[in-house]
Design a protein that fits this description.
Helix content: 10-25%
CATH architecture: 4-Layer Sandwich
Number of helices: 6
Order of helices and strands: EEEHEEEEEEHHEHEEHEHE
Strand content: 25-35%
Number of domains: 1
Largest sheet: 7 strands, mixed
Number of strands: 14
Structural class: alpha/beta
Radius of gyration: 17 Å
Strand order of the largest sheet: 1-13-10-8-9-6-5
Shape: globular
Distance between the termini: 22 Å
CATH class: Alpha Beta
Length: 261
């Protein structure tokens, strides 16, 4: 894993009526190169940053997938690479709870709640982190605050994105928010049952497949997010990412991290 400090400016995106791509993982013919950590680093408003890891960073889970016993070590390495004092995460249950991180662990604060699918903070040098292996990770940022969201179909249907946006808006006094939607299950591969289609009233249905990215884009826009950008990558068919659909119980977890420098 190559050394990485504060990320350089990420690829620019031009807003459009549909989900624009800021980085595509679709390999060119004959190409098998794996992107470095830095290739998935982006700037958020103010002094905010977002990072989406790949297999390069290893399995960052401490509970699931091959090599999870080394998860804490890999998190410590990532924390050091990003010049952060702490990475905050918690158990994810496909719900709508948003954890607001107000103090650093070990400095008089309390640990993250046992269960939360989003984290938000105004503290610099603290990384808010969620893990995913097909669910959509979403980084949110505005001047003075950042948040990160774990949005599988259950959480997306229940309103986790709306809850995170509302929390961030309260922290930052209503300032304009930018969102970056990271790698997740793509419409090309994500075949689901009727209960999933019913949860979204048939929206963005393509046969038995569903486009969660398009649904997330619409929900972010409806929640008042001024700019929505996308890392257009399907974790199921792109082996540069972990995928529970493809690998089952062996699948590791990649991370989405948002922080203020």
């Amino acid at each position: 894993m190559s050394a990485h400090r504060a990320p350089a400016r990420g690829p620019a995106a031009t807003p459009s009526s549909g989900p624009p791509a800021v980085w595509s993982t679709a390999p060119s013919a004959g190409t098998s190169a794996v992107p470095s950590v830095a290739e998935l680093a982006f700037e958020l408003p103010g002094s905010g940053h977002a990072l989406f890891t790949t297999r390069v960073a290893g399995n960052l889970s401490t509970a699931a997938g091959d090599g999870h016993r080394h998860g804490l070590q890999r998190r410590a390495q990532l924390c050091q690479q990003l010049n952060l004092r702490w990475l905050c995460s918690s158990a994810q249950v496909h719900g709508t709870a948003v954890n607001v991180i107000q103090r650093f662990a070990g400095h008089g604060g309390t640990p993250a709640p046992l269960q939360a699918d989003a984290h938000a903070t105004q503290l610099p040098e603290l990384g808010a982190m969620v893990l995913a292996a097909d669910c959509l990770p979403v980084a949110l940022g505005c001047h003075g605050a950042v948040a990160v969201v774990h949005a599988g179909w259950r959480g997306l249907a229940a309103g986790v994105i709306e809850q995170a946006v509302a929390t961030l808006r309260r922290l930052a006094d209503g300032r304009e928010i930018t969102a970056i939607v990271g790698p997740g299950a793509g419409v090309c591969c994500y075949e689901v049952g009727e209960e999933v289609h019913a949860a979204f009233a048939g929206a963005h249905r393509h046969g038995r497949h569903i486009d969660l990215r398009a649904i997330a884009h619409e929900r972010l826009a409806a929640a008042g997010v001024g700019e929505v950008r996308h890392v257009r990558a399907c974790t199921i068919c792109d082996e540069r990412f972990f995928s529970h659909r493809r690998e089952g119980a062996r699948a590791g977890r990649q991370a989405a991290v948002a922080w203020l420098s």
